[in-house]
Specification:
Layout: H1 2-25, H2 32-41, H3 49-64, H4 69-82, H5 91-102, H6 106-111, H7 113-116, H8 123-126, H9 129-134, H10 141-149, H11 156-174, H12 183-193, H13 197-211, H14 216-223, H15 233-242, H16 247-255, H17 261-276, H18 283-288, H19 292-309
Length: about 300
Amino acid sequence: MGTDLRGKYLGAMVGSALGDAIGELAFRYRKKEDLCGVVNRIEKLTYTDDTAMTIGLAESILEKRGIDAQHLGDTFSRNFQREPWRGYASGPPTIFSMVRRYGTPYVETARSLFGGSGSLGNGAAMRIVPVGLFFHRSDDLYEAACSSAEVTHAHPIGMDGAAVQALAIAQGVKLDPEKEFPLDSFIQSLTAFARTLQIREKMRLVQRSISEDLSPNIAAHRLGRSVAVDESMPFAIYSFLRHPKSFEDCLYCAILNGGDRDTLGAMACAIAGAYLGIGAIPSLWHEKLENRETIDRLAFSLAELGNRAGG
């Protein structure tokens, strides 16, 4: 599975970054024909904080051979200081600033946000790709996802949503795209994996939305498309399940129905890339992706390390 695994890891990392970058453009170009035109004309596809934090998570996993919360927080903070203009929401920079000022651990600081409940935003799910890849064969996937999430998103729903997104990516890696896509078992495993009522109910709603063949616009309205993870990650899952065999159709479904477009694109296309592999992604898009060499290198390093470690 060596070459194929590399192609799937690369597909997931590049797919997520492209979903982020093209999703960001969709805030301005909201019609498919306009968006396609600008994507074809533009010289560079520039990503946001979604991909910047994905890169940081991959870097930390590679350096620590797993999840080390304090090291991960330091990596996120360092990358933010270098590129604060990436479009970060207020939460992570607040945490970075508090840790620098008071010397408290990242997880403790993250738990103090939002009246002590922590964030349930989609920021942990949007960057979870390296966890879904590196731990795709591991029984510790849920715990690893939560450990990576709670550095900035310590609410149970924020962590649970990230873990379910990680499993979707892990399942994508393990499935053969040449075979029929196992729709029912895929979504049922996500539902069973969820540990909060909110995420579990949304996964059931995703399954109903697919089985009832709801249009993307109606599904987006029903499932949600906001920055809360239980109101965005489910629609990203829906977008993939509606178009499991087409990276491009999955992308457009995720980003052309309003809401948190860049993050919806990042989440949906991480799964599509993990399932279909790099060969399904338009090579011109890959060539235009900002910082492509770094993203490619991290994907290959994760595949190599994961293979040695047995996943």
